[in-house]
Amino acid sequence: MTEQLELSLEERLRRTIRDIPDFPQPGIVFKDITPVLNDAQLLPAVIRGLADEFGRAGVEQIAGIESRGFIFAAPLALALGCGFVPIRKPGKLPFRTARVDYQLEYGTDALEVHVDAFRPGQRVLIVDDVLATGGTASAAVRLVRRLGGDVLAVAFVAELAGLRGRDKLLDVPVHSLLTYPGA
Question: What is the reported pTM?
Answer without folding.
Answer: 0.94
